[in-house]
Design a protein that fits this description.
The complex is a heterodimer. Chain A has a single domain, classed as Orthogonal Bundle (ABC transporter involved in vitamin B12 uptake, BtuC), CATH 1.10.3470. By secondary structure, chain A is mainly alpha-helical. In chain A, the strands form two sheets. Chain A has a two-stranded antiparallel ribbon. Chain A has a two-stranded antiparallel ribbon with strand order 2-3. In chain A, a hairpin with a 2-residue loop joins strand 2 and strand 3. Helix content of chain A is about 70%, strand content about 5%. Chain A has 15 helices and four strands. Helix content of chain B is about 35%, strand content about 25%. Chain B has three domains: about 150 residues, Rossmann fold, CATH 3.40.50.300; about 150 residues, 3-Layer(aba) Sandwich (Rossmann fold), CATH 3.40.50; about 90 residues, Rossmann fold (3-Layer(aba) Sandwich), CATH 3.40.50.300. Chain B has 20 helices and 24 strands. The C terminus of chain B is likely disordered. By secondary structure, chain B is of the alpha/beta class. The chains are: A mainly alpha, B alpha/beta. The interface between A and B is medium-sized, with 22 and 34 residues.
Chain lengths: ~350, ~525
Amino acid sequence: MLKNEDKQNNTVKKNLDIPIVKSIGLPTLIIAAFFLLVMITAAVLKQSLPILISDILRRFGMNGVLVLAMVPAIKSGTGPNFALPLGIICGLLAWTIGIEMGFVGFKLLLITSAIATVFAVATGYFYGKLLNAVKGAEMTIATYTGFSTVALMSLVWLMAPFKSKQMGWMMGKGLRETIKLDGVNAGEIINNFLSFEIIGIKIPTGLLLTFFAFCFLVWLFFRTKTGVAIIAGGSNPAFAAAAGIDIDKNRIIANILSTVLGAYGIILYSQSYGFFQLYSGPLMMAFPAVAGVLIGGATASKANISHVIIGTFLLQGLLTASMPVANQLFAGTDLSEIMRVILQNGIILYALTQVKGGGK
Amino acid sequence: MGDILLTIKNVSKEFYGNQVLKDINMEIKKGEIHALIGENGAGKSTLMNILFGMPVIHETGGYQGSIELDGKEVMFNSPHEAMSHGIGMVHQEFMLIPGFTITENIKINRELTNPNMVSRIFGKQYESLDMKRMNSDARKALDIMGMSIEEYTLVAGLPVGHMQFIEIAREIDKTGIKLLVFDEPTAVLTESETQNLLAAIQKLAAQGIGIIFISHRLEEIMQVSHRVTILRDGEHVVTKDTKDTNVYEIAELMVGRKVSLDRSGSDSRRISDEIVLSIKNLEVKMPGEEVKGFDLDVRKGEIIGIGGLAGQGKLGVANGIMGIFPARGQVIYEGRPLELNNPRGAITAGISFLSEDRKGVGLLLDESIEINTVFTSMQIHKEFLHNLGFIRIMDSQKIRNHTNKMIKDLDIRCTSSLQHAGSLSGGNQQKVCMARALTQKPKLLLVSEPTRGIDIGAKKLILDLLKSLNEEQGMTIVMTSSELAELRSICDRIAIVCDGKVKGILSPEASNAEFGLMMSGVHADSQMGGAE
């Protein structure tokens, strides 16, 4: 373990001797530079900057909590939560139950959050148990846990006895693929809270406040006794064990937290979109979240709130801004989507190459 | 014994400015069994690494001096090259493949082959094995060793003694073997297996093979070797004919360090007769440092040392008490039995532990000095926390004040209390570990290898600190160390561990020979009578 660390330090020293590169991290700097370039191009192409910035802020806020869900998992030593779809499904299930019960507006939002919490805590508990049983292979197992749960849930969406007109098909049984939240007065419900416009930029105040509030709560959690114990267990299991810490219990707590954040994350995400997607909708949603925190400067074993904020802003900003720019420059191509795939998977690949050999 | 086979001339070696070998001269004759002895860190392994051309030597700048084999100067750049010159090594750990037969293990990578159709097209790698010839070769090698076991038996499941013999058989099967190095070959063998092995070694020597025999067991050395060379702290102490010396003298020469007794001021100290920690029949499954039935009584207010050679189990004792490795047996602390395999319980009871594995177990390298200092107290004793009902949040101000006090008290050199522990020097890291142990306000402090990997100045500071904790606060300290000199400088009594058990307890003033003999597992009384 030590040797690996030394090796890593050495390569870091060799490659990045410039202080600023060292403190911020190479991937973050590259993406930031790219983001700036795209923004400048957008300005040159006379695209509407206020609209672009409004969009970026919205995307930043709506993805934030999903990215934040990575922090507890990474800090506890189980690596980025590739099983984020678990939490997302809890959130989606809560939406459907809330709508089925006939709630609308803020009431729906609160009920949904409450139901989501219950589901996510239970799911997170069993998911944490699973991770404790497969130490050393958490990330792979997590990915496939996510995939298979999404498939299983597809059957549930199809067969669950929901009756609400808002969610069913015109004919036949089962839930629709895409369910609109406008119909239940929940579309952009948080975004519009206290929101205002300034020089043409729409500030989604409620959305940003909610995101930052969650960031603060997670930050605070990692300053509690339990939080510090989780960090210690993640960063040096031998140390934590010698200090009498129950590492397995802490890993479960961290993954419950991560799953709950995933559930809240999708609630925040879908209200901002104005609809939510069932069936294969959650399948790939872990990857932009993982990429987000990594772009912010996190690694598979270290992550902070600052990484979440910076990373989400850069990744979502870049993706949002590059779409209109690419469409104008290379009309008729799907370049921005191609770039998203390259960026998102590239950064995950990069982070995985930096992982120290299988944790024990 | 015939002509000179190997000459080591003025060999010196430095590792990063640290001299580990100084001007070593050695000669090995054909058919001679030459014993090489010294404490851990005396330079035996380095010397053998040089002889074998291990990469670690070249990567660190090579060595000075020269080595001659059969009168010709040689310099091996790889173990492979050394082997092709007829130098073999029997390893301490078995390098055998359990699922292969004895023959296959002996012949691995030197298989005898016959050409076939495929090999004519694709080359030598694809030739078929000539099992018949391989088996008969293996048989021959096994016969030399006096082993009747069938050569087609699988290695898996054989007793360790047999495995050792197969290792040796592999070496002697190599054609043109001239020199064989045995690195503690008897460490894992039973008495009768040892005798077989020693007999085999003598047989090999009788065939004209030169043998370097490294062992800590002095009786064996007396029994089989012709000459002994003693290394100490990287220096060549002496080479003697075995018949002109005795166990007593060898032991003394091996340890022979000037001991600075520095127990001034110890008169004011009172060690009560009260037994604070009583260890009975402790067994600890710590890989490489297994404890097999350890008994010790620790008196309140004393500094007791646990010494012994590496691998004998001295490090396992503290790790077992603290629940870091699985343990069995009875530990009574302050009159109550201490639950084993429960780190939390041991810490709660008031025992602190400074691990020998500073970076692995001792520190959170990526966290600040503050967290490292208060972590255990925060988690176990619930200190340094704001209590907000069911939530406990770190009390940053209190943590900072305490850490700064520790930094000042222990003279930790750092930029601030927020510096990460991983970026500190070894000595300062040890002080951070110490700060954490002291923050727990322990009544009993277990320290393992407190000065390992620390420069001399910092060493003294750490030892002085331990001494002052003991003298001023009456803290009971159990110190485990490989450095005998260090134990003798601060301990009241020193328990020597051999083969997982306490071999005996010595006063720090005991003679070098007594320590040396005990560490080698020789009963001091029986040998000393004969020597004088």
